[in-house]
């Protein structure tokens, strides 16, 4: 059941650039169950994590890694805490 609910995230990429120039990219795998988070600042990788994803229902998800991170999918935007990531079209 949970695997079907995360399929909406499959093969999607989301991006955020903040005011100090760091860039964050969220890339979901082919079935949406894993998330690769990469952050760069001045071209240097400052974070690179792979996190398992579970659905909480109603467009809510939780990333299970070192810490639990709850996020929401609304249309082409992910909302995670105070951060909003827009979907990147390839």
CATH architecture grouping:
Beta Barrel
- Tell me the fraction of residues in β-strands, as a range: over 45%
Structure summary, number of beta strands:
8
Q: Which structural class should the secondary elements be placed in?
A: mainly beta
Could you tell me how far the N terminus lies from the C terminus, measured between alpha carbons in angstroms? 29 Å
**Element order: H for helix, E for strand:** HEEEEEEEE
Major β-sheet strand ordering: 1-2-3-4-5-6-7-8
What value does the Rg take, in angstroms?
13 Å
Low-confidence stretches: none
Question: Which of globular, elongated, flat, extended, rod-shaped describes the shape?
Answer: globular
Fill in the CATH topology: Lipocalin
What's the helix count? 1
What is the residue-averaged pLDDT?
89
What portion of residues is helical? Answer: under 10%
- Tally of separate domains: 1
What does the largest sheet look like?
8 strands, antiparallel, barrel
CATH class: Mainly Beta
Q: Summary?
A:
6% of the residues lie in helices and 60% in strands. By secondary structure, it is mainly β.
Question: Can you describe this structure?
Answer:
The protein is mainly β and 90 residues long. The protein has one domain: Lipocalin, CATH 2.40.128. It is built from one helix and eight strands, in the order H-E-E-E-E-E-E-E-E. It has one helix spanning 2-6; strands at residues 13-17, 23-28, 34-41, 44-57, 60-64, 68-74, 77-80, 83-87. An eight-stranded antiparallel barrel has the order 1-2-3-4-5-6-7-8. A hairpin with a 2-residue loop joins strand 4 (44-57) and strand 5. The longest helix is centred in the first third of the chain and has 5 residues, at 2-6. The radius of gyration is 13 Å and the shape is globular.
């Amino acid at each position: 059941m949970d695997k079907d609910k995360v399929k909406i995230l499959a093969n999607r990429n989301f991006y955020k650039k903040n005011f100090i120039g760091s860039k964050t990219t969220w890339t979901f795998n082919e079935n949406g169950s894993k998330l690769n988070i990469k952050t760069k600042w001045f071209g240097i990788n400052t974070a690179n994590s792979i996190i398992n994803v579970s659905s909480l229902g109603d467009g809510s998800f939780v990333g299970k890694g070192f810490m639990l991170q709850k996020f929401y999918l609304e249309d082409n935007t992910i909302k995670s805490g105070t951060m909003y990531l827009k979907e990147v079209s390839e």
